[in-house]
Design goal:
This protein is of the alpha/beta class. The chain has 11 helices and 17 strands. Helices cover 30% and strands 25% of the residues. β16 and β17 form a beta hairpin.
């Protein structure tokens, strides 16, 4: 872990860079907006920790009504459970006896669960639970259009659910039905159509489970780009949005983008202006991922981030203010999740002052 880049009370211009900056006013407004949006529905928030990787943020979400957290990796689940979060679902398949043993061990301090899409995974989870003397909650993941993981909705999902329910060491928890590929469909109509199909697949699977005598307490999925539709469906019981707390440049490109505010930035320092019309900042590939495009320069429309190398970001100065060497710029990342995973600390600011520092406790938690 690197030393903190700031101290509470500092002016934002004193923060060492590159740094992960969190606008606390915008962040808290996002948490409140999600809570208010879900309040009239029957769906509850199980916020996704793969975005924020922080028990501190998880606690703030749960204080506003979230029923728990979800993660993608056992190591993320460990960071949350060790940080006092009582209910954690791995929305992913867990393969390998060591990972399953670690997950089962967490059941001594938290309610934990995982997803499966294969009979062998069910048997392996049951063996790990038996060895630990615990019962694990297991969901069947169904493919609702993402084409990544998950069995086909309907009979294939029911067969796996029956296998889970038959084990004395497992609890059938429901179905995982996340349509991830729909989150960044730009057209609202096309996005709604993709989620409508996912809702129907989930509805049909729940009905077939009931016909076999199985209740389906959890129908989980949804993301920041579509959660309102799943929440209003009457089918989904848990919403697994994560990016809503921070937002990023790619979500902002969606037509009819969600009304959450940009709260997460990478603070960078201009380190060179030697080339006319160019400002070079100390935030390149290692500071800001570019899988969803280059970052935007916040609040300065005449500046465009146009290229990156390992430690340098190249910004074209097209019009308006011309930053000087040593000036600080806020960059809006294209994709918030991998951006967070590059940093050890959140620097929480309110106005122009540092208010808090929070560790990114699950940084690098890939196992």
């Amino acid at each position: 872990m690197q030393p903190p880049p700031a101290e509470p009370g500092m002016h934002v211009t004193e923060v060492d860079t590159p740094a992960l900056l969190l606008d606390l006013d915008a962040f808290e407004a996002n948490l409140d907006l999600m809570a208010a949006t879900l309040a009239p529905t029957a769906a509850k928030l199980r916020a996704h920790t793969k975005t924020h990787k922080s028990p501190v943020i998880a606690r703030l979400q749960m204080a506003r009504g979230a029923i728990g957290q979800c993660v993608q990796k056992v190591a993320e689940a460990e960071a949350l459970a060790w940080g006092g979060i009582p209910d954690v679902l791995i929305t992913n398949e867990v393969v390998g006896p060591r990972k399953l043993a670690r997950l089962a061990a967490l059941a001594t301090i938290a309610r934990v669960g995982l997803c499966v899409d294969d009979a062998a995974q069910v048997d392996a989870a049951a063996a790990a639970a038996e060895a630990a003397g615990r019962r694990l909650t297991v969901l069947v993941e169904i493919d609702v259009g993402g084409g990544r993981c998950g069995v086909r909705p309907g009979p294939d999902a029911v067969a796996l659910a029956l296998r889970i329910a038959a084990s004395p060491h497992l609890i059938f928890g429901g179905i995982q039905a996340y349509q991830g590929s729909a989150q960044h469909i730009r057209s609202p109509e096309a996005r709604a159509a993709a989620i409508g199909a996912a809702i129907e697949d989930s509805r049909r699977t729940v009905e077939q489970l009931r016909q076999q005598g199985l209740d389906c307490p959890i129908v989980g999925g949804a993301g920041t780009g579509t959660f309102a539709q799943e929440a209003a469906s009457g089918v989904y019981t848990e919403i697994q949005a994560g990016s809503y707390a921070f937002m990023d440049a790619d979500y902002a490109r969606n037509q009819d983008a969600p009304a959450f505010r940009q709260s997460l930035f990478v603070l960078a320092t201009v380190m060179s202006t030697a080339v006319p019309g160019v400002a070079v900042v100390d935030a390149g590939h290692k500071a800001v991922p570019t899988d969803s495009g280059y970052p935007l320069v916040h609040g300065m429309p005449g500046l465009e981030y146009v290229g990156a190398s390992d430690e340098h970001g190249k910004i074209m100065v097209r019009e308006g203010a011309r930053p000087g060497c040593g000036d600080k710029l806020r960059l809006v990342p294209g994709h918030c999740d991998p951006t967070v995973d590059r940093y050890d600390w959140y620097v929480g600011v309110r106005g122009d002052r540092v208010e808090c520092l929070w560790p990114v406790a699950a940084r690098g938690a890939m196992a």
